[in-house]
Amino acid sequence: MDMQNLFLHDHMEKLNVSGACEYINHVSGLLRAKDQIVVHIQDMEGANEDTDPEARSVISEITVEPNDICLAKEFSNAFWKTDLEQLLREHGVEFVIIAGFAAEHCVTFTINGAQERGFQAAILQKGILSTQPDAITSIYRDRHMISYPVIEFLMETIA
Fold first, then answer.
1. Mean pLDDT split into 10-residue runs, the chain, 159 residues
2. Measured between alpha carbons, how far is 126 from 28 in angstroms, rounded to an integer?
3. Which of 24, 2, 10 is nearest to 151 (CA)?
4. How far apart are alpha carbons 9 and 3 in whole angstroms?
5. Can you spell out the DSSP letters for 96-139?
6. Is 37 helix (H, G, I), strand (E, B) or coil?
7. What letter does residue 141 receive in the DSSP assignment?
8. SS3 of 40, please?
9. β-strand 95-101 against 145-146: which pairing, if any?
């Protein structure tokens, strides 16, 4: 979610973006290997024809495969006024793993949106970023988390 040049370009080292990307890419690879969908959410709020398209692009550290789905959003909750819920239901998704930027805004609002729509949801441990030092700690304390070893185990149970 929102792993875009516009938001992260000036914070790459400070936020350890490469570390979060390593977890996100690993888990995305696990999901793809079992024909599960990977959705990249891009924040397009305030974008217009004058906006540099490269600024809104997903950062190069995130692997985007041809079969991945890219979805634009205008609001903090990726479910609000988008086709995300319909897309997930069409693919039979029951459990949503959320990762990306910004923990205190879009990540939190989207996990709430998933749960409000009846999805089971968790945030990928070590797969979220924030410019606010205490935001990630608060999310780890207050939200459901899932680690990549658990996802590895779950993917082994899928035929």
1. 89 90 98 97 76 82 97 95 98 97 95 98 97 93 96 92
2. 14
3. 24
4. 10
5. EEEEEE-IIIIIHHHHHHHHHTT-EEEEEEEEEE-SSTTHHHHH
6. coil
7. H
8. strand
9. unpaired
Q: pTM for the full model?
A: 0.93
Largest CA distance in the chain: 47
| Identity of residue 28 | S
Q: Tell the burial category of 41 from Cβ atoms under 10 Å away from its Cβ (0-12, 13-18, 19+).
A: buried
> How far is residue 155's CA from residue 159's CA, in Å, rounded to a whole number?
8
**Beta-bridge partners for 98:** 123
Count of C-beta atoms within a 10 Å radius of residue 9: 12
Closest among 24, 21, 31 to 88, alpha carbons compared: 31
SS3 71: strand
Cα-to-chain-centroid distance, residue 64: 12
